[in-house]
Automatic annotation (TrEMBL):
Quaternary assembly: Homodimer. Interacts with LigD.
Pfam family, one: Ku
Role, per record: With LigD forms a non-homologous end joining (NHEJ) DNA repair enzyme, which repairs dsDNA breaks with reduced fidelity. Binds linear dsDNA with 5'- and 3'- overhangs but not closed circular dsDNA nor ssDNA. Recruits and stimulates the ligase activity of LigD.
Transmembrane region(s): none
Descriptive protein name: Non-homologous end joining protein Ku
Sequence ranges of Basic and acidic residues compositional bias: 185-194, 348-359
Length: 391
């Protein structure tokens, strides 16, 4: 069970609702220790007095604000707590706004709010239902850990969600901060119309569970591969920038690719086979995976394994493929009528698939090859095989 990070009350008008606040997200990043190169000795950071070089205990550390060169005003933690009496236990709603009035650039972090006690479920649900039916977002302030926050309070399907926001003076004005921003595009330009067609052809419904952190998967694959003395397929570099002269041609090719089902976004799992949601469906938080280690790594090691861990693949992935068994994309397809049994052309395969084939064919130096080099090596190998049969 999650542990509350804060408890207090929501006040709006003369209504007060006791609540507990829980973090809505968690970090799945692989964390490394620092070691001295060539050893297994840990390297640790210590609090050291800059002048004497001696270690300083946590209880002997105070906050200091520099008012002149080398001159500080010191402030105790208790002093910071004393200047916000009572307010640290109150989420004070000052008004309600349309949800789309809050620019996403202001959002910082998300939390869930739960009733403070069983007897407060009714006023809690009343506030949640009122926010949902009115399609409004509450704007409030509160203090946590000696810091005041501006927050947005909104209704989830069964829960109240709280999002911390940046203050106005924390958000930079792009016109002032960025140089070389282009002027606005003419609405009747041919390229703009083509770009809109591309957006329309790639439009879909957002399901967060359809996406995964492919870099994090590759980090885990790298760790396991090194632990077992295996090789890992290197990633290709980023594509070259589109030549301005070829922009229209690139847009048109992109539309054709999207319509053929070959387009894909970074980190998105292929072949989701998802139904089109009915009207009125609400987006729900994605179910948390049981363990990050059970998902596929999105990278192959030299012995032909798929993913970071032996015998494991992404949830829902078909055995021996990269997609799910039901849908679009590159995976095997139980649900596709008349699925072709023929081998797909090499040029339609991903880099990981090409790498696995190169391993099967015994292509040397494959671990350092780009996708194009793997493709050339496999085509050359196929050519040698064909000429051998002909002879």
């Amino acid at each position: 069970m999650a542990r509350p990070v804060w408890s207090g009350v929501i006040t709006f008008g003369l209504v007060t609702v006791p609540v507990r606040m829980y973090a809505a997200t968690e970090d799945h990043t692989t964390h490394f220790h620092q070691l001295q190169r060539g050893t297994n000795d840990r390297v640790r950071n210590k609090r050291v007095n800059e002048r004497t070089g001696k270690s300083v205990g946590f209880d002997d550390i105070v906050k200091g604000y520099e008012i002149a060169d080398g001159e500080y005003v010191t402030v105790e933690r208790e002093e910071l707590e004393e200047i916000a009496p009572g307010k640290s236990q109150v989420i004070d709603v000052s008004g309600f706004v349309e949800a789309d009035e809050v620019d996403p650039v202001y959002y910082v972090r998300s939390y869930y709010l739960a009733p403070g006690d069983e007897k407060y479920r009714k006023p809690y649900e009343l506030l949640r239902a009122a926010l949902e039916s009115s399609e409004k977002t509450g704007i409030a302030t509160f203090v946590m850990h000696s810091k005041e926050y501006l927050v947005a309070l909104r209704a989830g399907e069964n829960v109240l969600a709280l999002h911390t926001l940046h203050w106005a003076d924390e958000v930079r004005d792009p016109e002032e901060e960025l140089s070389g921003l282009p002027g606005r595009q003419r609405s009747d330009s041919k390229e703009l119309k083509t770009a809109r067609q591309l957006i329309d052809s790639m439009s879909t419904t957002f399901h967060p569970e359809d996406y995964s952190d492919s870099y994090e998967d590759r980090v885990r694959a790298l760790v396991e591969a090194k632990a077992e003395g295996e090789e890992l397929t290197p990633e290709e570099g980023p594509p070259e920038a589109t030549n301005v002269v070829d922009l229209s041609e690139a847009l048109n090719r992109s539309i054709e690719r999207a319509r053929s089902g070959k387009g894909g976004g970074g980190g998105r799992k292929t072949g989701s086979g998802r139904r089109k949601p009915a009207a009125g469906d609400r987006t729900r938080p994605a179910k948390r995976r049981e363990s990050r280690s059970q998902s596929g790594a999105g990278a192959s090691v030299s012995k032909g394994r798929t993913g970071a861990f032996k015998g494991r693949s992404r949830p829902g992935a078909s055995q021996g493929g990269t997609g799910t068994s039901q849908g679009r994309g590159t995976g095997s397809s139980k649900g596709r009528a008349g699925a072709s049994k023929s081998t797909p052309p090499l040029r339609d395969l991903s880099k990981d698939e090409l790498y696995r084939r190169a391993g099967d064919q015994g292509v040397k130096g494959r671990s350092k090859m780009t996708r194009e080099q793997l493709l050339e090596a496999l085509e050359a190998h196929a050519g040698r095989g064909s000429s051998g049969k002909a002879a």
